[in-house]
Amino acid sequence: MPECSARVHHTETFGTVDGPGVRFVFFMQGCGLRCRYCHNPDSLDPNGGALWTLTQAEQEALRYRNFIQGVTFSGGEPLLQAEFVAQLSRRLAREGLPSAIDTAGAPDLRAAAPAIDAAQLLLLDVKAADSELARQLCGEGNERSFATLDYCEQTGKRVWLRHVLVPGWTLPSKQLTQLARRLRPYRCVELVELLPFHQLGAAKWATLGRPYPFRDMPPADPEAVEEAADLFAGMGFTVL
User: Fold this and answer.
1) Which residues in the chain belong to E strands, given as ranges?
2) What is the per-residue pLDDT across 8-64, written as a single tens digit (0 to 9) for each?
3) 5-234 carries CATH number 3.30.990.10
4) pTM here?
5) Where are the domains of the chain?
């Protein structure tokens, strides 16, 4: 039987914003969402990237084992290639390297569960508390994202909750309060990471010859971001 393989967009050897400590990051290819602010639009096509085998990926990550605290699967959407992520996570765990998965939680949970189980941590990007707003932002509602969060709660999987602050969309206090209230019952959520919207992905859209939906969107105001952090902290969350 051929060895399990997956399509990888690129790797990063010294990731510092993708989980605890310094991480080796696999940016997996393919995503079913179409977020208006996507900063990796070149990773959306499931047929892009390069084909990697488990052995290739394991050997590449292990080259840096003395300099990293773990491995993170990002993307794209890594849970679309859940079997590969699960098997590689288990291999790396045996070598003392824990894994994290940066995901929107949108893929079908039945297929994604083995990868979630094999990871030490989920970096779960919830687009919005309101499902219709999530659909307008990313082309899909939030039901599967919260089903993934429910699964983490049931299994005791650690979660770092990520949320992009988009002016006029997710940054208003009404939206943030709704999200914080919805998240409060989840004991698995260790911390909340609020990610201010920026324009750094616009150049990639231009390179692909595609119009950037948020080209006229201003970056998130620092004062509004600070207020958002205070709101979550005031409701008992640890904010990164």
Assistant:
1) 5-15, 23-28, 50-53, 70-74, 99-103, 121-125, 158-165, 189-196
2) 999 999 999 999 999 999 999 999 999 999 999 999 999 999 999 999 999 999 999
3) no
4) 0.96
5) 5-234
